[in-house]
Amino acid sequence: MKFIKFLLVGVVFGIVLTKSEAVSWYRIYEMFHFQSFHMFGIIMTAIGVGAIGIQLMKKTKAKDITGQPIVIPDKAKGFKNYIIGGTLFGLGWGLVGTCPGPMYILVGAGYWAIGIVLLGALVGTYLYGVLKDKLPH
Amino acid sequence: MYSFYGTWPWYISGLLIGIIMLSLIYFGKTFGMSSNLRTMCSAFGAGKKVEFFRFDWKTQRWNLVVVLGAMLGGYIATTYLSDGSGVQLNPQTITELKQMDIDAPKGKLLPDALVGAEALKSPKILAILLMGGVLVGFGTRYAGGCTSGHAITGLSNLQLPSLIAVIGFFIGGLIMSWLLLPLIF
């Protein structure tokens, strides 16, 4: 039963990203060509809502559902891994138009071809695991 | 102007995505979709050979359940909540795409040039899909997150590393979209 809430979060996430077309290859192309405000509006609104919510949680020392204090771990310091990894991800995102969330959503929506992208993403993740210690971080 | 069965406006979508992220924090977790790829590698036994996948993936089952829900959500949205009006693009975008022989949306989320039955017979298209996936999988793990983990969660939490990663996302996306796509298609 404890998984039901996560299933619901996922369902809402899938519906929202599909209905706002953030899963669409076209929307990603349009975003990178600055031909519509749509995607920027989605991302900036989400960040605005998120930032206000997180600040409120920190100010009120909010507790999570189990009564534990909410702690959002800071990202590790670094530069090379973020800029190189980010750029590689951006190249893939611009090419196939799917970041990791939309991959699953599109497969669920019946776009089976995106299963190939998902397979590629698993291969890419595995390759990173293999090469991790040889890469600049 | 907006309809429930048509394209949802950006402010509704952004608001709901923000709430989704906050809900996961309230549930004691964090919003991050690319982590599931690592979890799946681990669940498939990659930990036997590679140290990076040697962790108790079962602690991440909740996130796989989010993925399952997301797939279900994608199905529900396209099957029951769609009037087929689909993606309304800037006419300029459609003209540019046409020059690369990429078809206009006409109610579809993805171009036939990439995922249509004809396209999937082409080894070149299959290679594009696979390579795109490899870049997404490798890049997100190298950067430690994707749009959900860095752009939404990280920037909301004012994390400098996330800003660097997001700048990377756009460097890569702009290079691909402006320079490489016209050469590839």
TrEMBL record, chain A:
Domain of life: Bacteria
Transmembrane segments: 32-54, 82-105, 111-131
InterPro entries: Sulf_transp_TsuA/YedE (IPR007272)
The keyword Membrane is annotated on this UniProt entry: yes
Keywords: Membrane, Transmembrane, Transmembrane helix
Protein name: Transporter
TrEMBL record, chain B:
Keywords of this entry: Cell inner membrane, Cell membrane, Membrane, Transmembrane, Transmembrane helix, Transport
Highest taxon, organism lineage: Bacteria
Compartments (UniProt record): Cell inner membrane
Keyword Membrane among record annotations: yes
InterPro entries, per database record: Sulf_transp_TsuA/YedE
Pfam families: Sulf_transp
Membrane topology designation: Multi-pass membrane protein
Protein's UniProt keywords contain Manganese: no
Main location (coarse class): membrane
Stretches that traverse the bilayer: 6-28, 62-81, 125-143, 163-184
Protein family according to the UniProt entry: Belongs to the TsuA/YedE (TC 9.B.102) family.
Protein name per its UniProtKB record: YeeE/YedE family protein
Native source organism of the sequence: Flavobacterium suaedae
